[in-house]
């Protein structure tokens, strides 16, 4: 009885609908489901009927329980209307028409979209294939937003939507939420998308945070001429790291006697000084002793990163001066 109660809570299968239960050697559970004859309303003429015209078996995937697959054979009943002679299938709480994935399993699959994880993990937890998980999730249609945030973030990421290599993600940086995801990273497509918003909605955007992409900058300046464009911290710091790396490579070629030391200790230069081990700290001091230019570049890198710990514009200006 406890098994039936558990099944009713998790899979919405009532006890009176279970005809047989089979537990396989691998622990998987298979149900044979059948609904009793009941009064039905004809979808064609609206007349009531109880005349049954046979049953047709349907395979249903209910997912997994305690890491064991749960499947069922649903004996779906057909009815015949005695007024218009049309036949139709009975309504059921298990599965939608033409599908094999149960309603409860489909709901569980969609709920997982709000969690972190890949399609492979979602499919494994739901007891379906990866292609099935992707196919069902791709049917979801997310409504386009009607408003734009005050602080808008835009960035690209590598994907494969609609045959494109890169997609664009638009975020609300105040609320740390996703506004929309666009399938194409294309100047014309981005401008057309943002121009679908009203002028009032676009004027609400005061700040735009992005990388230093010329494509994004052209789009933002065209569509949001009054918004302030801010380069995000990661890409700015990356430019400084690249500058330090260029100095290291130059010194590696110039100081032939120390080229091996400079070549194999790049990670020490890029690592946060507070996280260096004792041996790494010794290597860093040796590298900085070898080259005056590298020591000066390393000091400028540390000084630049300190700016991000100062949140007052006047203090930042004094620090830079």
Features:
321 residues, alpha/beta, Nucleotidyltransferase, domain 5, 5-stranded mixed β-sheet, 13 helices
Q: Number of DSSP helices?
A: 13
Number of strands: 12
What is Rg?
31 Å
Relative helix content: 25-40%
Please state the overall shape, judged from the principal axes of the Cα atoms: elongated
Secondary-structure-derived class: alpha/beta
Task: Estimate the strand proportion.
Answer: 15-25%
Largest sheet: 5 strands, mixed
Structure explained in plain terms:
The chain is of the alpha/beta class. It has 3 domains: 2-134, no CATH class; 151-231, Nucleotidyltransferase, domain 5, CATH 3.30.420; 234-320, no CATH class. 39% of the residues lie in helices and 23% in strands. The protein is built from 13 helices and 12 strands. The protein has helices at residues 2-11, 103-111, 119-126, 130-137, 187-194, 199-203, 214-223, 233-254, 259-263, 266-270, 278-290, 292-306, 313-320, and strands at 18-23, 29-34, 40-41, 48-49, 52-65, 68-80, 87-89, 151-158, 166-172, 177-182, 207-210, 228-231. The strands form 3 sheets. Strands 1, 2, 5, 6 and 7 form a 5-stranded mixed sheet that branches. The protein has a 5-stranded mixed sheet with strand order 10-9-8-11-12. Strands 3-4 form a two-stranded antiparallel sheet. α7 (214-223) links the parallel β11 (207-210) and β12. The protein is elongated, with a radius of gyration of 31 Å. The model has no long low-confidence stretch (mean pLDDT 88).
């Amino acid at each position: 009885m406890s098994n039936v109660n558990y099944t009713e809570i998790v899979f919405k299968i009532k006890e009176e609908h279970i005809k047989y239960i089979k537990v396989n050697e691998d622990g998987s559970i298979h149900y044979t489901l059948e609904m009793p004859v009941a009064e039905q309303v004809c979808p064609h003429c609206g007349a009531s009927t109880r005349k049954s015209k046979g049953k047709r078996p349907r395979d249903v995937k209910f997912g997994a329980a305690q890491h064991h697959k749960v499947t069922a054979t649903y004996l779906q009943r057909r009815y015949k209307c005695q007024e218009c002679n049309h036949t139709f299938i009975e309504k059921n709480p298990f599965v939608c028409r033409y599908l094999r994935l149960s309603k409860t399993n489909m709901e569980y699959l969609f709920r997982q979209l709000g969690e972190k994880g890949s399609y492979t993990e979602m499919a494994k937890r739901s007891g379906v294939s990866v292609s099935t998980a992707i196919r069902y999730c791709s049917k979801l249609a997310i409504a386009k937003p009607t408003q734009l945030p005050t602080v808008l973030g835009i960035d690209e990421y590598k994907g494969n939507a609609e045959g494109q290599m890169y997609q664009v993600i638009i975020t609300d940086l105040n609320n740390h939420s996703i506004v929309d995801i666009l399938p194409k990273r294309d100047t014309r497509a981005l401008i057309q998308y943002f121009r679908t918003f009203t002028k009032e909605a676009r004027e609400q955007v005061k700040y735009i945070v992005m990388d230093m992409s010329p494509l994004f900058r052209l789009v933002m300046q065209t569509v949001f001429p009054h918004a302030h464009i801010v380069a995000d911290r990661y890409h700015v710091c990356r430019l400084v790291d690249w500058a330090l790396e260029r100095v290291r490579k130059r010194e590696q070629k110039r100081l032939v006697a120390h080229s091996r030391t400079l070549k194999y200790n790049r990670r020490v230069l890029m690592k946060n000084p507070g996280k260096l081990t004792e041996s790494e700290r010794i290597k860093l001091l040796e590298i900085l002793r070898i080259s005056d230019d590298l020591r000066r570049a390393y000091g400028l890198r540390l000084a630049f990163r300190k700016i991000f710990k100062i949140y007052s514009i006047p203090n930042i200006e004094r620090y830079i001066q």
